[in-house]
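User: quick one, sequence for these C-alpha cells?
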C-alpha cells in the first residue's frame, strides 16, 4: 500500500486588501486634519452677551476691526469684494457667515457688512460674542 503525503500550503499575505485599508485610513486622517485647521482671523475684543449660544461652525467668518477694516480669513477686503466673495460662496449653496466685530466698531460699519451679506444672498448670519 502506498502512502500519500499531503502537501501543506504556506500562508501568504494578500496585499490588495491591505493597500485598500491603508488608503482608507489615509483619506480618513486627511479629512479629519482639514476639519481641525482653524480659520485665520483677527484678535478682536468682542462684545459680551449673557444669552449667547454656540452656533454650528460657519463657512465664512468676517472680521470687522475697530478701524473699520474688513477681513475674511486673514485677508483684508473691501465691501464690494466682500459681497462678490459671499455671492460666489463655497459650493452651490450660499454660505453661512459669522460676523466678528470689535466692541468699538460703529454700528453703521456693522450694518454695511450685514447689507453686503444680504445682497449676496447669504443663507444665515451669526454674530460672534463672548459668553459671560
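Assistant:
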Amino acid at each position: 500500500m502506498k502512502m500519500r503525503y499531503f502537501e501543506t500550503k504556506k500562508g501568504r499575505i494578500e496585499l490588495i486588501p491591505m493597500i485598500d485599508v491603508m488608503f482608507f485610513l489615509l483619506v480618513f486622517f486627511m479629512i479629519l486634519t482639514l476639519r481641525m485647521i482653524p480659520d485665520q482671523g483677527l484678535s478682536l475684543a468682542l462684545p459680551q452677551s449673557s444669552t449667547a449660544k454656540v452656533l454650528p461652525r460657519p463657512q465664512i467668518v468676517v472680521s470687522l476691526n475697530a478701524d473699520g477694516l474688513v477681513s475674511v480669513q486673514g485677508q483684508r477686503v473691501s465691501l464690494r469684494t466682500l459681497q462678490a466673495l459671499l455671492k460666489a460662496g463655497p459650493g452651490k449653496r450660499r454660505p453661512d457667515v459669522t460676523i466678528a466685530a470689535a466692541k468699538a466698531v460703529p454700528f453703521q460699519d456693522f450694518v454695511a457688512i450685514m447689507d453686503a451679506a444680504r445682497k449676496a444672498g447669504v443663507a444665515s448670519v451669526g454674530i460672534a460674542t463672548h459668553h459671560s
